[in-house]
Amino acid sequence: MTEALSADHITKVFGGLTAVDDVSLHVNEKELVALIGPNGAGKTTFFNCLTGVAPATSGVVKIGGQEVKKNTKAYKVAQMGISRTFQNIRLFSQLSVLENILIAMTNQFKEGFLTSVFRLPSFYKTEDEMEEKAIALLKDFNLQDVMYYPAGDLPYGTQRKVEIVRALATKPKIICLDEPAAGMNPEETADLTRLIKRLQTEYGIAVLLIEHDMSLVMNLAERIYVLAEGKLLAKGTPEEIQNNQAVIDAYLGGGVDA
Amino acid sequence: MHTFFQQLINGLSLGSIYALLALGYMIVYGISKLLNFAHGDVYMLGAYWGYYTINYLHFGFLAALITAMLACGLAGVIIEAVAYRPLRNAPRVAALITAIGVSYFLENGMSYLVTSDTRNFPQVIKRKTFDLGGVSISNIQLIIFATTIVLMAALVYIINHTKTGRAMRSVSTDYDAASLMGININHAVSITFALGSALAGAAGVLIGMYYNSIDPLMGMTPGIKAFVAAVLGGIGSIPGAAVGGFLIGLLETAVQALGFSAFRDAAVYIVLIVILLVLPGGLFGKKQVEKV
Amino acid sequence: MKKNLKYNLCWLVLMVAGFYLINTLMLTGVINTFIENMLVTIGINIILAVGLNLIIGFSGQFSLGHAGFMALGAYATGIMTQTMNSAGGFYLSILVGVVISIIVALIVGIPTLRLHGDYFAIATMGAAEIIRIVINNMKITNGAAGLFNIPQFATWDIVYIFVCLTTIVTVNFIHSKNGRAVISIRENEIAAEAMGVNTTKWKLSAFVLGAATAAIAGSLYASYLQTIVPSSFGIMESITILIYAVLGGLGSITGTFVATILLGVLDTALQSLGVLRMVFYAIALIVIMIFRPGGLFGKWEFSFKHLLTRKQNGDMAEVEKEESK
Asked: Membrane-spanning residues where (chain B) (predicted)?
């Protein structure tokens, strides 16, 4: 089985503080994996290491079997096939939903400077083609009604959804979702669960998910990794994790209701 | 060796005026995140205050200095209330444009009122030159230096050891949190502008004494240099702003002494750019990292 | 394709109509030399402000050194047309100015675009000052005395055509895939990178394109005024250009046009007041900013597409759909 993502012995040190300590993890193709852990466990930092936002101090990340070389810029890492959403939504909020999607498709199309500046026929062809694809994608997620609205004006739940679809529009091998259900009501969470499932089944994309909502995690994830104080505490199937005493002590029993 | 010490003394006295300006600029920038283009013009107001009070009211040095500080502090408070406060929640660049507007207003308003002629600053203290083994130092230079040190010490004391200073620091860090803690934001911002502008006023009187000549556009370049000094030292750091100011003074004097006076300003900007590229937060600044 | 043709045609008609309007007013003597001077100044300022708006309003990089690039164009033309006194020499000098400006923009931009916000602003301001000081101390530029008797090839019609050309290039760049990548950096740099947008490349592209148009404006300025001195290209000139861009609305080319024309006319109208002119100008700036902090037009753009579709069908959704194109 091929791996969409593998991370070997990732360590991230800030000054004297080790935020992520020798964590290894892999996500197979089309697999849905969750990363859980108490607040401050280093989950988002780990995401930042994977996506090149804040590269790891040591360790190797491979995307689709291809190694991410040291000092690769975040946009290049993204081009290798990893996409993400952010804990605090980061949409291009003054731009329309459609434009958000179009920007995510930037690298799939070629459009020369002169072609666009002098509006040569091929410019309109590319633009129409891009737009068609983007609209089709938005329709698929039932977002066509809001596609001309500024992304920042949408309700919170819809913004989260747009951010996931935007991540999908980059045609990644794997999408990393950073707390997608945070701040959502149960109805929206149910909707989100279906959406994430569709990424896997219909689009054939692997998903790595950080989430506090245990029902969502237990519903969706095929395997779970547990992070505590920067270290990998446990890994296994949802059943194994639910019955793991160390996890219960460190996390589930630690005041967070599962 | 003599020339070296001579230039060192000249550089330090010029630098201390830049340092005063930079400190004022820095605390105002710290609290309002505003490129206050009018700061240099407040310094010009201070110089003119000195000119008129000494010439017509026969004030002595200390009286002129202190009243200039009070007058400029008041001017700072008024400028903030009229031109910056309405834009506190607006895009930052909007406040920048009003700052430029205030600067134009002060420069041209003064040109209209007192004409744009260059004037000789009155010799309120008779210049005496002391000879220290071949190196000459004037009493004016000593006064500038001493005044700067006293004012800096006072500023550090106010910011670090008084309740007002604590309020100013908390507002600089986070408006919303400070206001939730019951701090009167408007009050803290006003006091900061008063202090920053008072320092500019003092620098204005001192430069008048040092160079002997003043005009309504005299604040333009020093205002920008003050910001350069504050950035060089690292925004948010009091010692940084002071060191930045002294550094620019020394650098300018050195370049001039080496015979490249035409490239004096260019040297300052080259050093600024190089330092920013190596230390993006300035010499004493903290590197800002956006949290993802 | 066809629908786009219609809108593009509208713009073309507008540009030609504008040209003939000015031409007729000129021939009938309504526009005298005084007003012509004002119009040309406004045109040159539009080129500068549109370029700066691209850098600040669309890519989100706060540059304070636009006058430096203008100086490069002005001096390229000033120096070259003195030996090559022909229209061909003039256009060649524009090209040379643009090339030099692009090279300098790359040298300045590559290291400094890593800096953020005010740090980038002060670095670009410093770079522009260095350019000015170097020009001030060179023999070929005649130092602080400047160049005079520069042959006049840039008449009002040439300036008009260049205003149209540079605006078309800039606007078309903004409304393309590449332009969207540039705007995404302004909106959220971290998200743009996560979407695979090479932020350094696109920031630099916008900066270089803005610098190139500034050089063109500089060439026109030198050739029209026939006299240039280094002190015309200082911080104050950069700030003047900034004022046009901000007052119109960062992110609105329409706004840049309106603000530049408005302030240009205001400036001329107040000319008789002497020193008081700048006092009123200053008050106008403060008042406009307090009442319209986002600039006169915010991010709104005039668009024929918008206008015509609204007339054809009242369906709001349709209008919104067309608007975003």
From this structure: 12-31, 51-78, 90-106, 140-159, 188-211, 226-254, 266-285
CA distances from A134 to A127, A144, C323 (A): 10, 10, 17
**pLDDT tens digits along B222-275:** 999 998 998 899 887 888 999 999 999 999 999 999 999 899 999 999 999 999
Query: B31 near B172, Cβ under 8 Å?
Result: yes
Are C178 and A116 within 8 A, CB to CB? yes
Stretch(es) of chain A classified as CATH 3.40.50.300: 1-81+172-258
Any chains having at least 3 CB pairs less than 8 A from chain C are: A, B
Length of chain A: 258
Q: What is the CATH number of the domain that holds C124?
A: 1.10.3470
A127 with C172: Cβ contact below 8 A: no
A243 CA: distance to closest CA in chain B (Å):
33
Q: What is the pLDDT of residues B155-190, one digit of tens each?
A: 999 999 999 999 999 998 888 899 888 899 999 999
- Phi, psi values for residue A256, rounded to 5°: -90, 125
> A110 to chain C nearest CA, in Å?
9
Instruction: Give the C-alpha separation, A211 to A41, whole Å.
Output: 12
CA separation for the pair B159, B176 (Å, rounded): 20
Low-confidence stretches of chain A (pLDDT beneath 70): 1, 251-258
Cα separations in angstroms, B122 against A165, B53, B66, B102, B217: 72, 10, 17, 28, 19
CB contact under 8 A, B270 and C62: no
Task: Identify the chains in contact with B, defined as 3+ C-beta pairs within 8 A.
Answer: A, C
Scored b (16 or more CB within 10 A) or e, C65-85 reads bbbbbbbbbbbbbbbbbeeee
* Superfamily per CATH, domain A1-81+172-258: P-loop containing nucleotide triphosphate hydrolases (3.40.50.300)
The answer to whether the CB atoms of C293 and B94 lie below 8 A apart is yes
Q: How many CA atoms lie within 13 A of C159 on its CB side?
A: 29
Three-class SS string for C282-317? Answer: HHHHHHHHHHCCCCCCCCCCCCHHHHHHHHHCCCHH
Torsion (CA) C38, C39, C40, C43 in degrees, nearest 10: 120
Which residues on A lie below 8 Å from B292 (Cβ)? Answer: 44, 48, 53-54, 86-87
Q: How many structural domains does chain C have? A: 1
- How much of chain B is helix, strand and coil, in % rounded to 5? 75, 5, 20
The alpha-carbon gap from B221 to the nearest alpha carbon of chain A, in Å, equals 37
For residue C95, the enclosing domain spans 32-323
